Amino acid sequence: MTRLARLGLRMQLVILVLLAVAPALALTVYSGQQQRRAIQQDARDHALVLARVAAQAIRPVMSANTPDVTVLEDLALHSGLPDGSQLLLFDPAGGLLARAPRATGASAGDQPAAEAPVIEAVLGRHEAAVEATGADGRARLYGVVPITDATGAALAYLGLGVPTASALVGVGQAIEDNQGGLELLAVLALATAWIAGDWLILRPVRLLVNATRRLGAGELATRTHLRQAPEELTQLALSFDHMADSLERDLTRRQLAERRLGVQYAAARILAEADGLTTAAPEILQAIGTGLGWDWAAVWRPAPAPSANTLECVQVWSSPDLSPASFEAASRGANIPSGSGLPGRVWATGASIWIADVAADPDFPRREAAKEADLHGAFAFPITSSSGILGVIECLSRGIQEPEPELLDGLAAIGSQVGQLIERERAQAALRRANEELEQRVADRTAELASAKDAAEAANRAKSSFLANMSHELRTPLNAIIGYSEMLEEDARDTGQQQVAEDLTKIQGAGRQLLALINNVLDLSKVEAGKSELFVEAVDLAALLGEVVDTIRPLVNENANVLEVSLGDDLGVIHTDVTKVRQTLFNLLSNACKFTEHGTIRLVASRAHEGVGDWINLAVSDTGLGMTSEQLDRLFQPFTQADASTTRRFGGTGLGLALSKHFCEMLGGSIDVDSQAGFGSTFRVRLPAVAVNGHDALVTPPSQTASTAITEPEPVPRPNTVLVIDDDPAVRETVRRFLGKEGFNVALAEDGEEGLRLARAVHPVAITLDVMMPGLDGWAVLAALKADPELASIPVVVVSILDQQQLGRALGAADYVIKPVDWGRLATVLRACAGVSTT
Asked: What is the pTM of this model?
């Protein structure tokens, strides 16, 4: 029987046919046509069995209902089927997908159509055995069976056709030729064929069918282990076993990869939501343990001083059915140095390490505790970051585990993510400390600044008070010096004392220079304190520039310079603080005159419409010394000039340009400069035609009035009388002498009360009024004058050291003259107020 099993399937079929001839004849005689049909049915069943076996062989290579033609060719040519056998593969709709073997000379897409009975059997959707004649003229018996997937759904249909001559003709002929006395032989032949067929073919086929069903049900460990069978079935069984091995390996790898990716995803989610390692570690360890099927896990971190060169266990996790008390105690109590044990070696090398069985590893100090807890397989991977290795994660399993390099590669990514969390936690802690330190420093600095602010405000108030007092104390005697020197100069020139007149001119010039310095310091102080106000009024710009040019011409001529003036035709009227614009132009033109010798000074003015308003552009250029870039950097700083040599040669306080810059900015404009050493300078002033920061002050007059009734003397009115109200005797005398020369009669009052009395007594054509006086000050006197119907019409000219023009005009002053007095302007103002012409 063993030798028979080693024969090829073709030979076995021949033997079976020979054995079946005699019984078939006897049975034919006995049963006639019924026996013939039974034999034919056996052939059909046999064809179906062969078709099922072939279908099971083809099913694993079906991919997206697309057949592997090579497998069909192998089955048709090398599986032991009779010569002329054919395999036909159909889709569920009856379409022919493939034929094997191919017709001689035909290509894959040029095969003859399938036999109609076979197509009908396919469309019948069930197993069937049919006879059909092919395009080659050969009759075949086809077994048609479905090829199903794991759910039982038909993927395709297989038709295995065996030549009818090979399957039935010999049997039928034997039956017809030996009907007589072969009944007993037929019985023996049938029995022999049954036993041989069952042993040689049906048993291996049943094994293959059962194995296929179990594999399809998900039992990946299913194997046939069939080695004693016909060669073809043995090869088929080996192929089946190899296929099952491959499927099991692939599925196992896929499952491990999915579990590894699941662990990585879970770890990434936990780390993204965690604030720090303390809260994230338990969840990370649980995700690794449950996701990969390991039983114990721990986090190791460098121990604090004095054990800074060792690792300590800071967090553990274990599966619920594990009893790891002794191993956990041994881990928590261990301080593992670098290079020792599993965590220490990972810490030292920076690489993941796998141990199949820690019980057999001599460099695992906790192996006795691991044995007691029934832990064997282990691996560990580092927690890494850009700053180095920050710790180690260790996992153990109750089973002996062979190394999985792909798993270690995936866990290395988790170690990097945990390292990033630790770095982020450190950065957040450092940021919190920095914020706390910064908040404390800000609080301390705020307190210091508040204290400094209080001190600065106190100092500023003291400075303002000092400057106000000093301005009065300094400018009062200066006014007298300048006034007397002017009058003495005139007297000296009238009497022919030329040398004395020149000396008096020098005294007057020095006094005015000192007064200008004091005024500049006071103006800068007001600007820096934010107390400098604008007095906005309408002015003809061309007339203002003509006045400035006429005033500056003597300075131009001193150094033999030439002044060129270019004024636009459309300058028109502007609304601005005339005093500040005039002072700015004086500063720029006087500097140009001072630093230019035998050169050209040019003043250019134009008006331009930009956006929603008009702008005035003024440019003052010269061909003088010019400046370097270093000198330009400090040009507009107070008390600063180009350099020390400039100060020694030309003098000056260095306040003019600083004040000019402040004035331009107060008016809503700007000032800038272009200069080159040795080639002169150009200053450009840009001002709005309507000052954006100006306003008309609405001032409430002081409530102070005379508290006592003034007894009016007998009126002593004189024509063309000017009443001078000032508490300074020197000023009164100076004004009296000057106005006397101008043809005015002068009445003098030393305080406000006397001034009111004399005003009612003499009915002057004009009144000059000082502001800073004891008792009834100038503002109270002005208010009283304007409140008295008899005196309200008398023009009042305020003559004061204080520059408070806006307040004076709001209270009703006809004009405002700032000390030291410009005598020519005062005379012009008084003549206009009196409405007379004097000589």
From this structure: 0.36
